Amino acid sequence: MAAPLLVMRGVKKSFLGVQALTDGNLEVQRGEIHAFCGSNGAGKSTLLGILMGFIAPDDGEILIDGRRVRFTDARQALDAGVAIVQQELSAIPHLTVAENIYLGAPPCRRGFVDFKRLNRQAEELLASLGFAIDPKAVMESLSVAAQQLVEIAKALSHRNANILIFDEPTSAIGEKDVERLFAALRSLAATGKGIIYVTHRLSEVFAIATAYTVFKDGARVACGRVCDIDRERLIELMIGGAMAGEYVKGNTPASAPLLDVKGLTRAPRFHDVDLMLHKGEILGIYGLVGSGRSELIETIYGLHRADGGSIAVAGKRLRGGGVPEAIAAGLAYVTEDRKDSGLVPCASVGSNLSLSILGRVQHWGIIRRKAEAAEITKAIGLMQIKTPGSDQLVRNLSGGNQQKVVLGRCILTDPKILLLDEPTRGVDVAAKKEIYRFMSDFAKQGGGIVMVSSDLEEVLAMSDRIMVLRHGEAGEAFARGEATSGKLMLAAA
Amino acid sequence: MRGSAWHIWGETSFRKFGIVAAFLALCVLISILCQLQVAAGEWSDNAFLTAANLLLILHQIAVNGILAVGMTFVIISGGIDLSVGSVLAFAGMVAASFATSAAGVTPWSGDYVIVVPLAAALLAGAACGAVNGWIIARFRIQAFVATLGMLLAARGFTMSLAEGNPISSLSDGLRWFGTGELLGVVPVPVVLFLAVFALAWIVLNRSIFGRYVYAVGGNEKSARTSGIKTARVKVLVYTLAGALAGLAGIILTAKTGSAQTGAGTSYELDAIAATVIGGTSLTGGVGRLSGTLFGALIIGVMNNGLDILGVESFYQLIIKGVIIVTAVIIDPSRKQAAI
Amino acid sequence: MLAAILAALATAGFADAAAAKKTRIAVLMYGNKAEFVQLMQRYGKTHPAVASGLADLTFYDGRYDASVQNDQAQLAINARYDAIIVNPMDFEANIPVVTKARAAHIPVIVTNARLNSEDMDSEIVSNDVLGGYLEAKAVLAKLRCKGNVVIIEGPIGGSGEIQRGQGNDKALAECPKGAVRVLERKTANWSRAEALDLMQNWLSKHHGAINGVIGQNDEMALGAIEAIKAAGLNVKSFAIAGIDGVTDALGAVKAGEMTSILQDARAQMQGSIDLALRAARGPGYRPLSPIWNQYAPLGLKWNDGRSKHYYVPWTVVTKDNVDALLRDRR
Predict the structure, then answer these.
(1) Any idea which fold C2-125+265-312 has?
(2) pLDDT of residue B4
(3) Which chains touch B (3 or more CB pairs under 8 A)?
(4) CA-derived radius of gyration, chain C
(5) Residue B308: which of C32, C196, C205 has the nearest Cβ?
(6) Contact present, C325 and C317 (Cβ < 8 Å)
(7) What are phi and psi of C179, to 5 degrees?
(8) Number of B:C CB contacts under 8 A?
(9) Does C72 touch chain B (CB under 8 A)?
(10) Assuming Cys at both sites, which of A26, A463, C215, C218 could form a disulfide with A8, CB separation 3.0 to 4.6 Å?
(11) CB of C202 within 8 Å of any CB in chain B?
(12) What is the interface pTM, i.e. ipTM, of the complex?
């Protein structure tokens, strides 16, 4: 058997006295699409950081094609053939697609950038991947999905890139593009490259990966071929015990209307959308990227002014008073990207949690610290947030716990309605279930939830009714049990 | 980098005490240099390390310190204010116009009861600040650009008030704010500075408004989503900076005995320096007033010490530049997560 | 007879036309935030030729930047001004003003501050070396050449600091060797606030040892006075002098706190206007400003406006003449 393309053996790393990796092991063969699974905090990011040359390991060895390598910076890793497609988009908005792809190493002619060659190469690359993107388009004019595809092309532009790391690559792109991506991955693997695929979406593991490695608490606990394992067993390995079902659904919708949206319009994003949410109901909204889902929710919440239509909460119409009015009426909103618009990253967990309810714990404008601390403790308990203390900086928490902080901030306002946009993005399997339980309990107690999600399984499992949004207009609606993945994808296209 | 006890201690302690350590180190250095002069027989005693001199330093940093308090609020909120020097001059000129015995310098000039010049100057400063805040919040113009405009405009207001002339012959009531002493010992500017600092500390650290300032600077979108009226916070923050520039203008005018059209030129740079040296990050959301206090002290000790040691003013500028850049380089809050 | 009448009418017409033609003068000031500059501008506007409409003044603010002044000179030349008067920021860096004006055949007069050049048509300045000498002499006289002094300087490298400094040193050399010590010597950049802080630090360092303060301009001397007052010391026990004669300094002289060497802004400004008009309008021009009569007994001669250097005498301001000067300021 040929030597593995990549071997990482016995890698150890600790930060500030905390062991992030106790026994990091990873073996990737040529031609493999290797899924890399594990809960948040299991050490995946650290191991990959070491592989990418960003982090120096305390111990252990890395072998590429049987040769020992040691990276002291990212450039060396790149030269050795390791490339990554980050989850966070890092494109330069004002440059074109071609310029972004060849950033740092554009084809040159006598000291000047050869734009003809640049664009031609980019076009060839994009065509070979099946991505229909104009290489001369400016990055910021593209949709988020297209930008993600460009990131992928960029990683693949390094000719000698043999080990490709994909970190949650589908979080922003729609189903059609996911198919294209998978096709591209398969053809890349066929040329002998090794692909490491990090994801929390287990269905993708079984759709695309040929091998898997599971990490838990800083060490590898299992590895093997995907065809030899099933979903339940995979989850078991990740959380160290059996999980009785991934979803929690215990609510029954009532008939009393809670949120009544009529004819809501905001050009050019969406128009004439009707939406009805009942007490105790979870309404799922499914649509492709660009269908106007997030803008719809943001407008209901008061972040944008609507051009037309009406919003009524429990019978009372909202008067365009923006976010404070929405919160007072009982709405709460968890944004799609918590780092971008959900959390204050440089602040503590406690500060983030209490941000919306400071008015309740003040006296003549001065914050009453005991009262605030009580609210914070309440939220941490309600959401089961794992944090060493409320003073901990929120950005040091795992993705799942960060999401819980955002939810915790919302829940403290005693909302009647939760507007959730991709509530489990970047959250691991165990934390996902806790969030689902929270949603179910909230609805059980009479609250209503509007959930926007691009995760078909999640939408199908958690919604009582599903509304499809298509090019900014309300499409088909499905009751629970009526919908299937196929029908939803069809309705959204 | 090995994770180790040293490192952990270093990281957390440095964040809190780094600036104090730097301040003490500077004081010790200057004291030693002065002591060397004494030992060499050049001087009769260590002029730096006397109670009178240390009180003098506090007196000298009062104006910049008050400006820096306002600047700290603005920078934490994610903005910057380049106009405080000009607003200081404008407010000083306004105050002087209501507290002078020189006739006819402005259409309304005269010696009014002290409340009038004080209120007028503070209002003038606050008004300039409010305009800054309104332009930034309403038209979403970058703070740098908006306050740059005010820097020029306020300087113009200052000059136009008395047609380019300074205003002197100030009333005793006004002069007291620069030259008076409380309990016969503590100069009024020092008292005002410490009072402003204490009040500002309470507001920034214990009040809702302070929390909102941090949130808006930390992530404006998140703040908005949480229900904070971010536009209002911004307007208030710049108004506060303007009002404090007004107070600083009153003190400087009272101290020099004359309101000058060129007063306060480049004072915003010292205010920003004190704030940045103190650990407040220019990206917003992070910062402490205690840091600003020590930042202002470091600048004051440096100016005083280097004057006493007879160091040429150009070296003073170089040293100040080096200190600012060093402070930002070692700023612990600059550290981002690796990936 | 008819021909003679026509000829007379014609020449009279020409003369009238010549007399009616306004002379446009560009006045380049180094900055506009100092009271002295404001005074110059005021006196410029009250010059009889300007008041009567014979001459038209346009003031340029050089924003304390020598290169800006050079650019403004070019502007004035392009706009075809008839004459240029310049109060330069920098002794060396503003020589191009003169060079460019010469090349464009436009008369150029230097006033108040000096340029290291002989190419201008004339300069009308006060001798800064003499000024520095006079002020230092005033301080040393009060101290009877015994004790410690400090010198607060203008911006380093500017003609003010260089030449007044030379004058200061000349006066100090005239005291018996070793009798007077210069404890400190540093710049406060013509600023009252800067001088205040500087003097405070010096007082703190030398407690009690400083007897005299030589401020190379009034603003800085006034700053030193404020520092002395703030330290609770008796100003009158110090010997303090400044240069310029700004209004606040006159007040301080009246209060017995300092001596000031008055630089006559009116003489410099109006004198330079006369010189510019002479150069632009030709030999027929008679100077219109009263300053020529005022200073003739003191040695300032018109000389048909053809001299290269005109030195306006300084006026040592004492309690005797300060009231008259203050009245004049109103």
Answers:
(1) Rossmann fold (3.40.50)
(2) 45
(3) A, C
(4) 22
(5) C205
(6) yes
(7) -75, -30
(8) 78
(9) no
(10) A26
(11) yes
(12) 0.86
Nearest CA in chain B to C190: B262
Residue of A nearest to B339 (CA): A49
The tokens for C121 are 């048509």
- Cα C98 from Cα C36, distance rounded (Å): 23
- The stretch A117-141 carries a mean pLDDT of 86
pLDDT averaged over 10-residue windows placed end to end, chain C, 330 residues: 64 51 92 86 94 92 88 91 93 91 95 91 93 96 94 86 94 93 93 94 90 96 95 94 93 95 94 95 91 91 91 92 86
Nearest-5° angle of CA A189, CA A194, CA A199?
Answer: 95
Whether C94 and C70 have beta carbons less than 8 Å apart is answered as yes
pLDDT(A124) > 50: yes
Q: Of A426, A446, A429, which is closest to residue A340 (Cα–Cα)?
A: A426
Distance of alpha carbon C166 from alpha carbon C161, whole angstroms: 8
- What does DSSP say about strands A362-363 and A366-367: parallel, antiparallel, or unpaired? antiparallel
Within 10 A of C113 (CB to CB), how many other CB atoms are there?
22
DSSP symbol at C210: -
Residue with tokens 């300094």: C249
Interface of B with C in 179-238 (CB under 8 A): 179, 187
Q: Is A100 helix (H, G, I), strand (E, B) or coil?
A: helix
CA distances from A266 to A14, A339, A445, A472 (A): 50, 26, 33, 9
Would you list the domain boundaries of chain C?
2-125+265-312, 128-262
Taking residue B319's Cβ as centre, other Cβ atoms within 10 Å add up to: 13
Determine the Cα–Cα distance for residues A142 and B15; give it in Å rounded to an integer.
41
How many CA atoms are closer than 13 Å to the CA of A164, on its beta-carbon side? 30
Contact yes or no for B257 and C248 at CB 8 A: yes
C2-125+265-312 and C128-262 share one fold: yes
**What per-residue confidence (pLDDT) applies to C8?**
59
Confidence (pLDDT) at B339 = 26
Question: Is the preceding peptide bond at C155 cis, omega within 30 degrees of 0?
Answer: no
| CB contact (8 A) between residue B60 and residue C200 | yes
How is the beta sheet containing A465-470 ordered, strand by strand?
Answer: A331-334, A417-421, A448-452, A282-287, A465-470, A473-479
Mean pLDDT for back-to-back runs of 10 residues, chain B (339 residues): 45 64 85 86 79 89 97 97 97 96 86 94 98 96 96 94 88 92 90 97 96 96 94 97 98 92 92 91 90 93 85 81 76 43
Distance, in Å, from the CA atom of A394 to the CA atom of A231, rounded to the nearest integer, reads 31
Q: Is B107 exposed, middle or buried (0-12, 13-18, 19+ CB in 10 A)?
A: exposed
* Whether A321 contacts chain B with CB within 8 A: no
Tokens matching residue A411: 């829940």
The chains in contact with chain C, meaning 3 or more Cβ pairs closer than 8 Å, are B
- Alpha-carbon distances, residue B152 vs A63, B90, B95, B159, B266 (angstroms): 62, 11, 20, 11, 12
- What is the rounded CA–CA span in Å between residue A408 and residue B325? 40
Quick one: chain C helix, strand, coil %, rounded to 5? Answer: 50, 20, 30
Instruction: State the architecture of C128-262 in CATH terms.
Output: 3-Layer(aba) Sandwich (3.40)
**Under a CB-based contact definition with an 8 Å cutoff, are residues B104 and B118 in contact?**
no
Tell me the β-bridge partners of C57: C25
Token pair, residue A263, equals 């004819």
